[in-house]
Structures are given as C-alpha cells and as structure tokens.
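Researcher: We plan to redesign the surface later, but first we want a full-length starting point. Tokens attached.
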C-alpha cells in the first residue's frame, strides 16, 4: 500500500525521527523512499543595499552555500535511513517547501508523504509546523506526521 514513500526533511531532530519511521515503514513493505529536501529560494530583494553601503552578495557563493547546506541535510538524513536497511534515493529542490513537496508527491504518484511536525514550546507542541500543516491540507495522498 505505501510502497512509494516521499520523505520530506529539513534536517531537524523531528525530521530525523520521521526518517527513522519512513525507513522502518519501507523495510516492512519493501517500499522505496525518495528523500526530499526543499530550500527556500534566495531572495535578493531582502538584501537590497542601502545608499552608500554595498552588501556585496555574490550569487555564486549563495548558490554554493545552498548546495552545501542541502548536501549536509541529505547526508545526515540518509545515515538514519541507511540504518533501517531501506532503499532510497535523494533529491534537492529550490522553492516553497509546502508547494514543492505536494507537487512532487502528486506528479510522481507517491503513496504517502512522511514528514516531521515541530513543537517550539508547551502550547506549540499541540500544533503542527507551518510546512507540515500546509502539506497535510494540500496533499492528494496520505500524510504520516511524526512528532
């Protein structure tokens, strides 16, 4: 039933728990995981220079930083999945995380999305993170939320 699993990660501790759960699920059903990390695009307008002050933002350095950050998140998450023995592949996209996650899940016909929730305090622990919440409400397939 859940043989094609999309695991959305941001590298957080909750996302690593989700990776363990996805790996365990995939191992039980002979499923395959696609590990997806989505990074917000660099917003150059947020760094407009003030008169007389040049920020000196180098788009190539920003792109390299994004790639290196994505690689680090994917590697850390991959280690968790490897420990479960599950089969997986990794990918990195740039865009609005909820929209990209939902789009990839739908266009590539995933059976389930696995994603971590997040809690920032006693009250927030009852609430889903904004990315998770948007994915849950927009996804065409079941979403397994891990706390």
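Model: Full-length starting sequence:
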């Amino acid at each position: 039933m859940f043989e094609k699993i999309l695991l959305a990660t941001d590298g957080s501790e909750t996302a690593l728990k989700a990776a363990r759960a996805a790996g365990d699920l995939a191992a039980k059903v002979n499923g395959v995981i696609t590990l997806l990390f989505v990074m917000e695009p660099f917003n150059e307008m947020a760094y407009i220079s003030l008169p007389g002050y040049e920020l000196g933002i180098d788009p190539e350095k920003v792109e390299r930083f994004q790639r290196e950050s994505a690689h680090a998140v994917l590697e850390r998450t991959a280690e968790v999945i490897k420990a479960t023995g599950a089969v997986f592949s990794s990918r990195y996209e740039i865009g609005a995380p909820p929209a990209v996650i939902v789009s990839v899940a739908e266009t590539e016909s995933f059976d389930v999305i696995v994603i971590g929730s997040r809690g920032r305090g006693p009250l927030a622990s009852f609430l889903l993170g904004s990315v998770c919440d948007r994915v849950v409400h927009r996804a065409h397939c079941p979403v397994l939320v891990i706390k």
